[in-house]
Amino acid sequence: MQIDILTIFPEMFQEVLNSSIIGRAQKKNLVKIKVYNLREWTKDKHKTVDDKPFGGGAGMVMKVEVIDRALQDIAAGYKILLTPQGEKFNQKLAQKLTKQKHLIFICGHYEGFDERIRSLVDEEISIGDYVLTGGEIPAMTVVD
């Protein structure tokens, strides 16, 4: 299985993915995991991945253009948006995901996503009814 993770904090994944059972699975080539920095797909000198919400409101949201470019560059896979509104992650969903050959996880941050990003993914997943600072911990949870 191939797993790709899109994030603005790739350094958060190093210890988790290179340790324990996940680390051993990678060494045995049972799974290939690659973490991408979304800033690689920005076009401005400041590597901006967020913007003010189009309709107004507080905070900043992840830009659709950056995520769209990233998804176009990565080989086709089953695209998952990690979001509080998604289907709650459980064992049944975990078993469903194991049938995929290639998973792509999109980790949000800030106040959320540009709503157009939802049209780019195959599924939205939530790991529970609580607030986290971003999608990195949910991605680690689902990958584990």
Summarize the entry for a quick read.
The chain is globular and about 45 Å long. It has helices at residues 14-17, 20-27, 64-73, 91-97, 136-143, and strands spanning 2-7, 32-37, 50-51, 61-62, 78-88, 102-107, 123-126.
Tags for this model:
single chain; 144 residues; alpha/beta; five-stranded parallel sheet; two-stranded antiparallel ribbon; 5 helices; 26% strand
Describe this structure in words.
The protein has 144 residues and is an alpha/beta fold. It has helices at 14-17, 20-27, 64-73, 91-97, 136-143; strands at residues 2-7, 32-37, 50-51, 61-62, 78-88, 102-107, 123-126. β5, α4 and β6 (102-107) form a beta-alpha-beta unit. The radius of gyration is 15 Å and the shape is globular.
Give me the secondary-structure topology.
Blueprint: E1 2-7, H1 14-17, H2 20-27, E2 32-37, E3 50-51, E4 61-62, H3 64-73, E5 78-88, H4 91-97, E6 102-107, E7 123-126, H5 136-143
Parallel strand pairs: 1-2, 1-6, 5-6, 5-7
Antiparallel strand pairs: 3-4
Placed side by side, the strands forming the largest sheet appear as 2-1-6-5-7
| Ends distance | 13 Å
Give Rg in angstroms: 15 Å
Q: Helix count, per DSSP?
A: 5
- Approximate strand percentage: 25-35%
| Proportion in helices | 25-40%
Element order: H for helix, E for strand: EHHEEEHEHEEH
3D shape:
globular
Q: Tally of extended strands?
A: 7
Major β-sheet annotation: 5 strands, parallel
